[in-house]
Design brief:
The complex is a heterodimer of chains A (241) and B (448). Chain A contains 5 helices and 16 strands. In chain A, the strands form 4 sheets. In chain A, strands 8, 9, 10, 11, 12 and 13 form a 6-stranded antiparallel sheet that branches. Chain A starts with 6 loop residues before the first helix and ends with a helix. The longest helix of chain A is centred in the C-terminal third of the chain and has 15 residues. Chain A is of the alpha+beta class. Chain B is built from 14 helices and 14 strands. In chain B, strands 1, 2, 3, 4, 5 and 6 form a 6-stranded mixed sheet that branches. A 4-stranded antiparallel sheet of chain B has the order 12-11-13-14. Chain B has a two-stranded antiparallel sheet with strand order 7-10. In chain B, a hairpin with a 3-residue loop joins strand 5 and strand 6. The relative contact order of chain B is 0.09. Chains A and B meet through helix 4 of A and helix 1 of B.
Amino acid sequence: MNSMPSDSASMSFVDRVVVPGDHVLDLTGMANQTIKLGAGLRQDGDAISVMKAGKLRISKPNKYWVESSHKRYVPCVEDTVLGIVVDSKFDNFLVDIKAPMLGLLPVLAFEGGTRRNIPKFEIGTLLYVRVVKANNTMNPELSCMDETGKAAEFGPLKDGYMFETSTGLARMLLSSPPCPILEALGKSLSYEIAIGLNGRVWVNAASPSTVILVSNAIMNSEFLSAAQQKIMVEKLMKRLQ
Amino acid sequence: MPIMEHKSMAWRMSVNERKFIETALASDLRVDGRRPFDYRRLNIKFGREDGCSEVQLGETHVMAYVTSELVQPYRDRPNEGILAIFTDFSPMADPSFEAGRPGESAIELGRVIDRGLRESRAVDMESLCVVAGKLVWSIQVDLHIIDNGGNLVDAANVAALAALLTFQRPECTVGGDNGQDIIIHDPKVVEPLPLVIHHLPISVTFAFYNKGDIMVIDPTHKEESVMGGKMTATINSNGDVCAIQKAGGEGVMPSVVMQCIRIASVKAADITSKLKNAVEVYNTERALRKVKRHPSKMAHQVSVADITLEDKQVKDLPRHQAKMACQPYIGSSQDDEPKVDTRTSTNADGNSSGTHADAFVGGPSKWDPYPLRVGTSQVLGTLTVVKEEQVVSDDHRAVECSLDHTTTSSSGTVSVSDAMQKSNTSKSLKDAVKLKKRKKNRSSTTTR
């Protein structure tokens, strides 16, 4: 609970683990600057304090946020997630996205969607969707189109295998440059992968053994460093041969 | 109003997963990389108290507690104790578990484990009888499911067995004024007794797929959601079938059932050995813990470091300890006075013997058993020499140096420790005592 007096001192909190109650930035010396606060941060009078436990991140010049990894997902706008169809109603599909509430996918939210060609999804269909509206009082609204109205890879995923991980691992898999584990696996195996920010990952490949190998490798790579991930994949490949 | 999801539908499986698990099984592949007849990693831990165990089988996590109390026996079995199994499916283990009354699967799990223990007479009931027809011990096993990762029956069974193997009930005797009172002895005063367990019934669960063609052992939570049928065989390491449970699901051929039983007996032997190893480790550690309960007395005991002493030995200990203080001066003079003087002067130097004097006075013991064990053989050898030459003097300093016949000789202390040894100490303690006896005899002969 120490408040840091200068900007350079707040840099010392960046990329470090912070807990709720930490004051990471003192605003008294920064009268004319705008600071953008992301998830997990709050303005407390003259200081910025932390509300969620996690790592403090900065995106220059002035965006701060706290990154944490959970098993449950809190929906945010413009996130791409994997959902499972639970039910279909007259104008919405009810889709489970590992959030506190079920997501609503309008039946017309597909490219070229009209009342005549509403897709038929059976219960349990896996969908790759985008979060359009997210409010903690209402059910989040989803869509199978991007902003321009094109399909853009959204929609049902066929075959393959889906497994659940933490949101932190999903973010790591989606980072650019590509995550070392995915690159290393891609060098020797060919597979298809869809990653949802809600922690769901879908993998597809020609043979079931490849799918099982890729999914187990990804699940085990959560706490490994880049070098360790490469070594793990090398060992796996050697064992296969 | 926001649309909330129905509680029982909280965990969903996608169609893709379902199809994939089935197609992978058709090629003998399981989703977590195991072979069809491989068990997940079994991890058995124990708590501080007796009869408390925690078992992890892959992701499945179960805890078992065993408690006992004296009750009236059932009327049709006046000579037998009572064994009761209670299961608690905590809602944190699985979204489909609800708090309150146990559901069907909870009752089934309790019943399968109970049948395995009771019908096969694994736990000896007659040894739990105190007064026939009036008072018997009732053993209650509480199973708490912490995390449901699939195959709860096997994990809970191992947890129950581990807890029963390490549980100790208080000793109770019939006595008192009229010879009818039941006295329950405090476990700290009288060693509690373990339960008599004749054999270990291990349950092995199989899951069937594809109309009974494919079977796997130890299904995970996802595999259980996709399976067609399930069968649990409870077998002990001798190959005796204690119980079989197949409740509903796909029909299977009798040949498949026989094959499952054969596989189960192999797996049961493996799990039995793991369980016995874990219990052995725990028992040795518990025995060591019991011995270290009296650190102030420990400091005085020179001969055998890991035996607890009874009260009658305590008053001899100061003298015994003072012998060690006298040790460097043995042989230098024959009578007390100069010996005492030199001893006090070296005490001022801060010799190691000074610490013994401190401990004798009653301060915190700085004595460390292990380095001194090397020296004890020499000490005892010299002590026996002193015993023959020492003259008992009258004041308190002489008391410290004087040797008492019952406790001084090395052989004497060994016989004391033998008497101290309880019949139910573990193998390792007996070995330790024998080892020291040999060491002492050897050293006493050499120094003489």
